[in-house]
Amino acid sequence: MKKAVTSAHSCRRQGLASCLVLLLLAGSVLAAPQPGRRVWQRRTPPPADSLLATSLPADAAAQPPLRRPAAARLQELSQQHEFQYTDVTETPANPSLWDRLLSWIWDHLSRLLDTRGGHLVWNTLWYGLMGATLIFAVLKLLQVDITKVFGRAPRALPLAYEMGQENIHELNFADALAQAETAGNLRLAVRLGYLQLLKQLTDRDFIAWQPDKTNQTYLRELAASQPTARPAFAELTRQFEYAWYGELPVSAALYQRVRETQRQFGQQLSGAGRAAHLT
Amino acid sequence: MDPQPLHEPTPLVAQDAELSPALASEAPTNTAPADAATGFVPRTDLSALTGQVAAVRQQIGQVIVGQQDLLELLLVALLADGHVLLEGVPGVAKTLTAKLLARTLDVPFSRIQFTPDLMPADVLGTSIFRPAQGDFEFRPGPIFASVVLIDEINRAPAKTQSALFEVMEERTVTQDGTAHRMTAPFVVLATQNPVEQEGTYRLPEAQLDRFLFKLNVGYPTLAEEVQILQGHHSGFGGTPLEKVKPVLSAQDLTALRQQVGQQRVEANVLEYIAKIVGQTRAHKALYLGASPRASLALLNGAKALAALRGRDFVTPEDVQTLAAPVLRHRIMLTPEREMEGGTPDEVVKAIVQSVEVPR
C-alpha cells in the first residue's frame, strides 16, 4: 500500500516538470523576433542637432525648360470655335427689322436678368411656375373644381330652354276664352275653361295650385277637401285630358257640352264656397 | 314601394288598396267609358291589351302577394320592349316574380346565375371545332332566349357584364364576325342585392343605361306578410310555379307592342320629358346626368303605362310616375351629395318638382 502511494507521487512530480519545460520553450519561441512581424518598441528621439546636419541634395537644373508652341500654330488654334470661350453672335449681313427687334429685346432681357436682382426674379418665376404646375396636377388628379374658390357655380351644362311658368292667377280667362272661341280653337277653349276651374278651386282653398302638380294630384286634394265635388271634377279632368293631351278633335257641339259642364261645376263651386264661408 | 308618390301620399280611391297612389291614381277607363256619349273615349281599341294584361296579372296574383306596383312596372317594361333591373334585399320575391312573369309568356325562357368565375362565352355561346367537317360551329349560349333571367347580375366581373352590352341594345350577338340576331321578344330581367358588398362588382354605367327601369323591391306590408304566411300555412298545393299558365304568346306580345308604339304624345308632353331629363344634366347635386336614351326610355315607358291605364295618349302623370324608375340608375350623385346621404330618388323628385307640368 505504501509503495503504491509513493509511485503515484513520483508520477505527479514528473508531469509538473514536463509542463514547466513546455512553457519555457513556448515563451522562448514567442519572444524570438520573426520575419514580417512588427515588434513595437519605444524609439529614442534623435538629437536636436542631427536635423541640421543632414541637408537635401542640390537641384541640378535651376529652371525647368518650357515648351512654347509656334506662333502660327497658336494663331491657328485660337481661330478654332472650340477654343473661343465667349459667345460669338453671328449677325446677318443685312438684318431685317424683325431681326433687329428680336436682338434688341434679347439684349435688354439679358442685361436685366444678368444682374443679382435679375437672377432673383428669374429664380422666383421659375420655382413659382414649377410649384403652380405641381399644384395644378394634384388638383386635376383629385378632380377638385377650383372654380368654386372664386365663387363661381359648379360646372353644369346651361339649360337650353326657358323655365317659364304659367300663372293662372294672371290670366284673363274671359278674354282668352272669347279669343279662342272666335278663332275656332276649341281645344284651347276647353283647356282655358279647365284652367279657370283650377283657379276657382285654388281661390276657394280646395286645392293648392303649384305648377309641378298633375291633374291627378289636384283630384286627390279635392277628394280630401271636397269629396262630393270629386266625381264631377274627375269627369272634367278626363274631358280636358282627352282634348288636350289626347289631341281629340273638339266639334262645336262637343265643346258646347263640355263648356256647359264646366259652367255647372263652377256654379257648384261658388255654392260650396259660400257654404264653406258661412260655416 | 316603387315608385314613390310625388305629392300626396294620401290614397286616392278605395278601389284597390294594394296599389300605391302614384300607380293607382287611374284605373283603366276604356272598359267602361263614362263619357262615351260625348266622344271622350280612346280612338284606339285597347280592350285586347288591357284584357291580356289583366290575364297576366291574374296568373301571377295566384302566387305573389302584393308587389302590385312592381308587377305593373314589369308589364310596362314588357310592353315598352325594355329590360328591367330588380334591386332588393334577399327574400322579397324578386326572382320569383321574374320567373312567374316569364312563365305567363309562351316564349323560350332562360336563367343564368351570375357567378364571379362566369366568362362571356358562358353567356353568349362559343364556336366549337367540328373535326369531321373541318369547320367551326356556333353553339348559342343561354342568352339566346326570349325572356332571360339573370340572377345576381352584380356577382359577375365587368368582363362578363360587358358581354351583355351588344345583345341588350342591338339584340345581336357577334361571334367570329357573324352577327346572330335574337328572336323577338327579347327581355332581360336582372336581379341584384344592394346590401352585400363582398364578392360583388358594380355594374358599368353603360350597362345600367341599357336597362329601361331599375325597380326597387321593398318589403311587404304587414297585411301582405300575414297573407303570405297564411298562404304558406294552408299549403300552396304544389310548386307555386306550376299554378301559373302561359297566357301571352310571342305574337300577342308583338301586336301589343305595336299598339303601344302608336300611342299619341302631345308636343308639350314631349317637351316636358326633354326638360326633366335635361334638368339632370344641369343639376348641382349630380355628377352625371341622363342621356337621350333616358328620354326615349321615359317616352316609351309612358306610352306603355298610358295603354295599361286604358288611354291612347300620354299625360304628364305617366311621365312623373316613371321618372324615378327610368332615371335613378342613369344619374350619378356628386361625392358631396353622396356624403350628405342624398339618394338619386330624392334628386329625381326635386327635378320633377322643378319642371312645370304642361297644361
UniProtKB/TrEMBL annotation, chain A:
The chain crosses the membrane at residues 124-142. It comes from the Bacteria. Residues 194-260 form the Protein-glutamine gamma-glutamyltransferase-like C-terminal domain. InterPro entries: TgpA-like_C. Keywords: Membrane, Signal, Transmembrane, Transmembrane helix. The keyword Membrane applies. Residues 1-31 form the signal peptide. This is DUF4129 domain-containing protein. The lineage of its organism: Bacteria, Pseudomonadati, Bacteroidota, Cytophagia, Cytophagales.
Automatic annotation (TrEMBL), chain B:
Keywords: ATP-binding, Nucleotide-binding. Pfam families: AAA_3 (PF07726), AAA_lid_2 (PF17863). The keyword Nucleotide-binding applies. InterPro entries: AAA+_ATPase (IPR003593), ATPase_AAA-3 (IPR011703), CbbQ/NirQ/NorQ/GpvN (IPR050764), ChlI/MoxR_AAA_lid (IPR041628), P-loop_NTPase (IPR027417). Gene3D superfamilies: Magnesium chelatase subunit I, C-Terminal domain, P-loop containing nucleotide triphosphate hydrolases. Residues 80-221 form the AAA+ ATPase domain. GO terms for molecular function: ATP binding; ATP hydrolysis activity. Coiled coil: none annotated. The keyword Nucleotide-binding applies. Belongs to the MoxR family. This is MoxR family ATPase. The lineage of its organism: Bacteria, Pseudomonadati, Bacteroidota, Cytophagia, Cytophagales.
